[in-house]
Design brief:
mainly alpha, two-stranded parallel sheet, 6 strands, P-loop_NTPase
Length: about 220
């Protein structure tokens, strides 16, 4: 909801636990709930924006107003839900085919026809190589300046500059190969070469938070 021009493909699993008519009923209910959720979000944002604009001193809330307007402008495209039986190889292939069909849709993904300079592929291949090295085995992230120095050790990337690297990282972030939060001051110099590391870290953090919130059994 916070990413401009997002495209979401809902996937329903455990089809093998439902009758055929139940699958269609659940598909309809899920899509209806998503539609209602988006409508409620749009209404809430409009309400908050109107409140700020109608306040006695709206200039004091300009930062909040700008953030809300930015969220309001984010479009979200919800595709039709794909129902699969995860234990059925044919259903997995069906899901894969559906994803590929949507990704090739130029209306949904205008950049699908973008021709990338060869250096983009070269940097991508080098980053994959680095991310799979023993050096990255434990933590999956790297300082941006250090990453540039590592990439510069590749003969065909010896002249790679920071600005070009940042352009490539923006592309790799969009396609999900790496995670780079350049808009967050504390994280702009850190590149997560293994996005799965973030998932593990969040799970550990949530687990610790649950332990802190649980009442003591002592």
């Amino acid at each position: 909801m916070r990413v401009p021009n997002s495209v979401v493909l809902p996937v329903g699993t455990h089809v093998d636990c439902c009758r055929e008519e139940e699958v269609e009923e659940k598909r309809h209910n899920i899509m209806a709930k998503i539609t209602a959720m988006l409508a409620e979000r749009k209404s809430n944002l409009a309400h908050f924006i109107n409140n700020l604009e109608g306040s006695e001193e709206p200039e004091f809330y300009m930062d909040q107003w700008e953030r809300l307007k930015e969220m309001e402008s984010c479009t979200l495209t919800i595709l039709n839900l794909v129902a699969v039986n995860c234990t059925d190889h044919h259903d997995i292939k069906k899901l894969e085919a559906a994803i590929l069909e949507h990704v090739k849709n130029e209306e949904l993904f205008p950049e699908v026809v973008r021709v990338l300079p060869p250096v983009y592929r070269q940097v991508e291949a080098a980053i994959v190589d680095i991310s799979q090295s023993e050096e990255m085995a434990d933590y999956g992230m790297m300082d941006l300046h250090y990453l540039l120095s590592k990439l510069s050790q590749y003969e065909h990337l010896a002249n790679l500059g920071r600005e070009l690297l940042q352009d490539v990282l923006r592309y790799l972030h969009r396609i999900g190969l790496v995670v780079w939060y350049e808009e967050i001051n504390h994280l702009e110099s850190t590149v997560f070469l293994q996005p799965t590391f973030l998932i593990t870290m969040f799970k550990v953090s949530e687990g610790n938070q649950d332990c802190l919130q649980s009442p003591s059994s002592a």
